Structures are given as structure tokens and as C-alpha cells.
Amino acid sequence: MGDATVVTSSWRLVEVGRVVLFAGGPYDGRLAAIVEIIDHKRVLIDGPSASADKVVPRHSAALAGLSLTPIVIPKLPRAIGNAGLKTKWNEAQVEKTFAESAWAKTRARKDKRKTLNDFERYKVMRLQKQKRFAEKVALAKVRASA
């Protein structure tokens, strides 16, 4: 018999303490934590936040409308109350961790792009052309010297 190596999966599991991001609905783009698993399709979530406009009240939500993030609040008890969750949320620095992630930066970039008007989109296009031209010139110099 050969040796078997067991490697943990890199999947994001639905677990108590997992931070989720709303993918639509009235709480689109807000963060919350899974507090309790109701069944294989629904979870109880609560989203304390430092800013009042990003708070998610405790309610059940379908997993289909949520995106699981890689952030997990460690050792979160099942069905923890709002005050306890808020302290654990702040200890884990969930909002800061998510804001520093590539996912959040990409979302912010896309949101900023959506708000541009015609002239601003034109300026972005011109800057991209200038950047491409500079790269092309630099590459031509490298090829010529080689």
C-alpha cells in the first residue's frame, strides 16, 4: 500500500463565524457573519458595522444570495447575541481586513468606473492609449538593444 497524503480543501465552507458579502437585494455590498445554520439553503446572519449605513440586521438569508469570503471570525459561539458578535467583529477587524483585500479593491474600482460620465470615460481611454504607447516604445527599445 502507498502512503496517502491528506490535504485540506481550499473551499470556503459554510460555517458559524464565516463572513459573507451580500450579492444583491437591499443589503447589496454589505458584510455580515453567519451566526447559525438553519438548513442546507438558509443561514441566520447578523452584520454589525462601525458605520450605521452598513449595518445588517439579524435575519435569515438564502445562501444563493450570499458570497462567502475567506474571512472567518475565530471561535464564534453558535447563536451569539448582537453585542457579543460586535465585540468579536471588532477584535477580528473584519471590515479592515476586507477593505485591504483584492476583492474589495476590485469592487471599489468597478463602482467608481460605473459613476463616470462620458468625458471622464474619454479621459480614461486616452490615458490607457498613452500607457500602451509608452509600453510599446519601451519594448521596442529592449528588442533593438538585444
What would the keywords be for this entry?
40% helix, 60S ribosomal protein L14, 146 residues, 2 domains, alpha+beta, SH3 type barrels, 5-stranded antiparallel sheet
Shape: extended
Summarize the amount of helix as a percent range. 25-40%
The top-level CATH class of the largest domain is Mainly Beta
- Classify the oligomer: single chain
The radius of gyration over CA amounts to 22 Å
SS content category: alpha+beta
DSSP strand (E) fraction?
15-25%
Mean pLDDT: 93
In total, the number of domains comes to 2
First-residue to last-residue Cα separation: 54 Å
Give your account of this protein's structure.
The structure is a single chain. The chain has 146 residues and is α+β, with helices and mostly antiparallel strands. The chain folds into 2 domains: 18-101, SH3 type barrels (Roll), CATH 2.30.30; 116-145. 40% of the residues lie in helices and 22% in strands. It contains 4 helices and 5 strands. It has helices at residues 82-92, 94-99, 102-114, 118-145; strands at 18-22, 31-37, 42-47, 56-62, 66-72. The longest helix has 28 residues, at 118-145. The N and C termini lie far apart (54 Å).
